[in-house]
Amino acid sequence: MDIQFTDREIDVMEVLWERGPSLVGEVRAALNDDLAYTTVLTILRTLEGKGYVGHEQEGRGHRYFAAVKQHAAQRSALRRLTSKLFKGSAELLFTHLVSDQKLTARQIRAMRALLDEKSRKGET
Question: Is residue 73 part of a domain?
């Protein structure tokens, strides 16, 4: 499944992933930007139309919930990024990440451990 979000949609999805099912006003209050209630509602309805969000009736309102897992969205975004900007090469993406980031010694050790584990398991 190819999952794609606009920047605003990602902001709303992050609220749902972190807070769980929420009313429009709760989503709005959790956002960093001061968006109008109707703007947040429109974003939620758009996400619902795409199948990424669902809702349950609660009184006169709706409680919206994420219909896709954050991990699935991350994997989809990473596949798309790798495909579009790195010629489908995970190695090129990894090389770019490592060379362009200021990584701590702990982060480098964690990456090495992950690569070693994948190598031992023979994962490709």
Answer: no
- The count of other CB atoms within 10 Å of the CB of residue 67 is 14
Any bridge partners for residue 89, and if so which? none
| Domain range for 100 | 89-124
Q: Which pLDDT does position 123 carry in this prediction? A: 63
The pTM assigned to this predicted structure is: 0.80
CB-based contacts of 27-35 (< 8 A; 24+ apart in sequence): 27/64
Residue 103: inside a domain, yes or no?
yes
Same domain, 44 and 94: no
In tens, the pLDDT along 48-88 reads 999 999 999 999 999 999 999 999 999 999 999 999 999 99
Q: Which residues pair with 56 in a beta bridge?
A: 63
- CATH number, domain with residue 56: 1.10.10.10
Instruction: Using a pLDDT cut of 70, give the percent of the chain over it.
Output: 98
